[in-house]
TrEMBL record:
GO terms for molecular function: nuclear import signal receptor activity. Belongs to the OPI10 family. Residues 19-120 form the Hikeshi-like N-terminal domain. PANTHER family: HIKESHI FAMILY MEMBER, PROTEIN HIKESHI. GO terms for cellular component: cytosol; nucleus. GO terms for biological process: protein import into nucleus. This is Uncharacterized protein. Residues 131-183 form the Hikeshi-like C-terminal domain.
Amino acid sequence: MFGVVFPNRSFPMDLSCFTQIDSFHWILDMNTFVGEAYDQIKEMCIFLLNEFSLPPDKVLAVYVQSPGSEFKYCGAVYRACPSAVLTLCWPEPGGQMQLTSDSVPLTAKIGVSIEDLNAIPALNVGHQQRIEQLAMKVGENLFNFMQSFCTMDSNKLVVPTDILDRWFKKFQERAKRDPEYLKSFVI
């Protein structure tokens, strides 16, 4: 029905790598796959194996779960969008006791579920979150730059009129000199 690959980390994996919970739910135990560094896995490509894998009104939704946390929605694939690279935004580990009743450590998991197309809020949430995080970091960089040139006047910040031009020029020059600089803004 579907396959997954973790870019730069795995070969393509099929449904047999997942534990089937019922007819509509599968789980991949990340300890089995990567061990303790599950949160270093930032992306996952999921794909349908053929156009008949799902009915037209269904999606294959992907969720992630850190140890002791709730599942968090990441995105989905469906017939009109048969593959996607999803950002895995792992939730903070929960405060629950880190052992189950059988004294087995809780693990991180990736869940895959067949759901109704109209029940899914946004098909690629992780991509949207990554864009928002990038915008926040660039805004923070601008604010810090402006603060170094501003003065206070009656509870207002006063900055030179050319501050945006100066910041943008400095930003562009740094990005040209250091290709890794822009990558530092991506979480």
